[in-house]
Amino acid sequence: MTxxxxxxxxxxxxxxxxxxxxxxxxxxxxxxxxxxxPCSPEGHDLNFSDLGVAFCGAGDGPFIxxxxxxxxxxxxxxxxLNDVCSVIERKIKETYQEFGQxxxxxxxxxxxxxxxxxxxxxxxxxxAFGPIVNEKFEYESGGAGQIMAEFLAHKLHRSWLGIEQAxxxxxxxxxKAGENVDGLRRRSPNHRAxx
Length: 195
Prior knowledge:
Elements: E1 3-9, E2 12-17, E3 20-23, E4 27-30, E5 35-38, E6 52-58, H1 61-75, H2 81-102, E7 112-119, E8 122-129, E9 132-136, E10 139-143, H3 146-156, H4 163-180, E11 190-194
Antiparallel strand pairs: 1-2, 1-10, 2-11, 3-4, 5-6, 6-7, 7-8, 8-9
Helix pairs in contact: 1-2, 3-4
């Protein structure tokens, strides 16, 4: 069972997820569910060497990894924030279309992906449920603890929070969801803040 969340604040985006993964519905293991891809300055001019994208997801782990890998690979050479965001959205749709033709009808995994993009001092937060991508202007959550996370975020999130405050909020939301949602046990959160 998974809980994921993303918070937009004045200084950037905080992406977070619990660290427990269920394997074959029989056992659990500790994994890092937040994937951060910074753009290496090698081979890039300084105008876009600060590109970074953080991904986390709920659902089929290998498919989440594939979506993040394909999205990052497609956007890493883009030169402005809007182009990066458009390329990621297009790649998510293309990946679903490709795998939808490989799987038998109705068996293609449908995951909830939350991701944040930062570049040139600006950042944007997105949620992709299946191939449908929407920009989020405050917060987003998913997984087994989504209702609890949404309740807490609605009560506590403010757009003027700093990155440190948003990181504390993210840890608190994961902790409370883990304590109060059936199927989630207290586990260590991992998160990534993008400034």
